[in-house]
Amino acid sequence: MSNITFLTQEQCFEREKLDIIKKRGTKAAITDFSILLGGYVSGYHIDSDDSLEGRTGYYWTKSDDGDNDARVVNGIGDRYCRNVDERDGGARPALPFSSISSIPTNGVSGKRARDGILEVEYGYYPQKAVSKDMQLKLEQAFKSGRLSRTGKGYTTDSKKYDDYDEKFEPKKHEEYQYDGKRYVRVETNSYFDGGEFQLSNGERYKDGDYVWVEVSPVKWLVDEKAKIMLTEKLIFAGVQFKATRDYHTRDFDKTDIKTFMDKYLSKELEQSRGTINLGEKQDETEEIEDTGTRKSRLQKLNPDDTKPSSRTNMTDTEIIHNWIEAGESVLLRGPSGIGKTERIKSLYPDLIYIKLTNNMFPEKVVGSVNLQTGQSIPPDFAKTVIMQEATEEERKLIEENIQSIYDIADTVYERSKESRKKVVIMLDELLNVKPAVQALVYTLVLNRIVEIGKGLKLPDNVVVVATRKPKEIFKCSRGLSRAVRKEIRSYIRYGAKSWRMDNRICDTT
Length: 509
What we know:
The protein contains 14 helices and 26 strands. By secondary structure, it is an alpha+beta fold. It has three domains: 9-269, no CATH class; 279-313, no CATH class; 316-504, Rossmann fold (3-Layer(aba) Sandwich).
């Protein structure tokens, strides 16, 4: 039995109310995938395009009402009760943990949001419908047999959303790979009863349509006091809550939906993303399997339990592209001439490129202060990335007064949380700069803040890529503080969200 569960009514509303609920509220957005599986959408209007991506549904708790109904949190965040036979309820799984160090993740460090809540990514699951153009590309590739299967899949209930008397019957949605990303093809089974409805991509669908949904990391909110993490959104629907006839809270482990999460969800969240072989050098921490095969750090962080015949081989460039699209900063290590820089430029032609040199001043990384006016002047790359993501009106304000960039950066940061576009800053030849500047670069990557003035926060969709020759990372460590050196070692060793790939990059295949 897995540890995945639901919150209780008390944890949502009463004296046991979680800190994350107090700060973020009880309402939760529902994913496109959940809507396609029959999930109820609160306040939906076919003629309204407002907040399509933030629409809410109701979600189950594991508390009962004393009359064999389950207590739920409805679409406006209030407490309510629903019949356990219904299939249009959304699911917002929760996962207890014993300590902060034991929180499960995708090998990426969590980020502290502005309200103080720790957000982590754990597991991969279908969530958002693709754009109209991508829908056409995927459908054409699928019908022509050009899409490759990954050997993975995601299980849902095959029954119609209103088949209340029917038992659960599993349906597997195969996962396909296209241009370095993963997708599933879903046949619409919505509660709209044949009428049209709209997803977050702005497109309208009706029952029986096929919709392509991207597989992406699942975001969880961590309640450090209660030691429990909760999905930010409702990630699946269409499964009956059901239970024994004399349902009571203590019987939650016997419910249909808990059985579904134990048997399918818990395993499918943790599916590996394919076998990756970068020729990584082994170190003293490597382990030996029963077969005698050595496991690299990356393999230990992303254990692959699939059969060899089901595994998907990926080129180095595809691997790099996947890490960047997942929002993870990357360090490419390797000798000159193997194409480290050109690979990134080919993937992201509009990247912000910075050539690091041994005579570079710290101001290029952290900015400077005008001694006459006292104004803080951000570094060029920070201004460029903010200007790229700003509106025309916001750009005018920055040009009129550079100090307005700080408030605009905060606005851009919040807006960029929902952006699918990745903005890449490339720092070429990291070891060229003096140790003092190196330390500033590492701090920039670890904190994602340019520390000039009150601090300039880079957009949430910014990814930093750096290159260096295959020298020891601390060979030029004089000038780096002990704390920074320790943090860098920790990030590289455990694969947290800084330099995700500290490996020699070989020729692509």
